[in-house]
Amino acid sequence: MKLIPVEMLRPGMIIARNVYNAKYTMIAKGTSLNSEYIKFIQSSGYINIYIWDGNYMDVDVTNTIDDQLFEAAVTAVANLDLEAIQELAVKIVDIIEDEKNINVDFRDSKSINDYNSHHSVCVAIYSVIIGRAMGVPTKGLYKLCEAGLCIDLGKQYISNDIINKPGRLTKEEFHIMKEHARMSFDILNENDEVSSLVKKCVLCHHENVDGTGYPLGIEGDEQHIFIRILHVVDAYNAMISQRPYKKPFTPNNAFEYLIGGKNFLFDSKVVDAMISVLMAYPMGIDVELSDGSKGVVVGGSGNALRPVVKIENIEEPVNMRTDEKYQDVNIVKSGALLEDYSDGKVERLNEISKKDIRTKQRIMIIDDTPMSMAQTKTAIGDAYEYICFENGLQCIDFLSKNSEDVPDLLIMDAVMPTIDGVTVAKKIRKNGFSKLPIVFLSSTRDREIVMACREINKVDYILKPANAIYLKERVDCILGNLRLNL
Ligand SMILES: [Fe+2]
Fold this sequence. Notes:
Helices cover 41% and strands 12% of the residues. It contains 18 helices and 14 strands. It has helices at 35-43, 67-78, 82-98, 115-133, 138-150, 160-163, 171-178, 180-189, 196-203, 225-240, 251-260, 268-277, 345-356, 370-380, 392-401, 421-430, 447-455, 468-478; strands at 2-5, 19-20, 25-27, 48-51, 286-289, 294-299, 308-311, 318-319, 331-334, 362-366, 385-389, 409-412, 438-442, 460-463. The longest helix has 19 residues, at 115-133. The chain is globular, with a radius of gyration of 23 Å. It binds fe (ii) ion.
């Protein structure tokens, strides 16, 4: 069995797993493809499909959660059927609890059109696996699974024109999207059979551990561990999915983002548990390694990014986590990387977003170290214009003379020699720029400084040296050019 991008499908290939939409099996496994089927699959927005391949007969990708159960959960969520959701949560947990070798990957089954109905089912399943790895008892897992299935129930009351809008959302649209957490909570709140823990998890699944999330802005210790698990998984599944307004993150980049956001957006223990139990690269997918060799993923290793790979011309599969010869070798490409196969489709989606940005947004950077300034600009890229200052006084002076010409975002170091970042931010706020988003980029973890930054209403605090992927995606999110946390 092999997972290939839909652009590589050819007549005569045999489908190895059912292809289905939100409710029905559209093409059963074992079907020999003809041009009509291929056209259907390609036009329905699927990214990858499993086919039989004689060279990889022993790659078994039977999902721990079978199609029937997955589809039943999708239907229960779509119908807002809380009784069925509770029953299915128990079934899903019991299956995962009984299974030693868990294999869950639904990337081949998700078409771009079915994202909303599949997303919460994927979140529920991944959350249970992580919860189990973190020692959550079975009864707790039932609640965690139920909460995962319910996180986005409220989205059914939001227009698809907003949910699937290919470009930037307006402020009002952002507000409506963020309301979905409360709307999901309200649906559950009417039902006495749903526990208060499940209701709280659903309400808070977009809370960041540093208190910058929504809708309540609660912090790490105030968040039940289930909330922290759901938040990480929700972000992960959103990142690896293709949406009308964004291409999927590569598995590597999705994990880089989670790692970069540890202790600020995401709970670090949850991220670590996730890396140890999930597979970033699905079984049966082609990979290219940094030493130039090519192979196919044939198993997990306990590290999502370093799977077991059957490499061409090497008999025994290589465990990239434990094999000493491969410690300096990484996966540089995989079949899921759409850049290779997208046929321009994703680029077209991104073009729509770009057109929507009429003029380049401007970012002001204050950093006393030229090297660090250059690294920040390089990481964020040339989609933005920059105004750069070496100290905060220049920034205060600029804003006082250009009050009509305020940048869209300010990024600055928290600790600087002439005037520190917190003082600069306080002066800026005092001078009337209360809405200018401020991101602190600093190498200090000093709690007092972090807290002081928080009090002046910063939008983020990123540790230096910044993870380039995390920094870029965070800036894109803050400026409304990327939707990840909705
Ligand atoms: Fe959500």
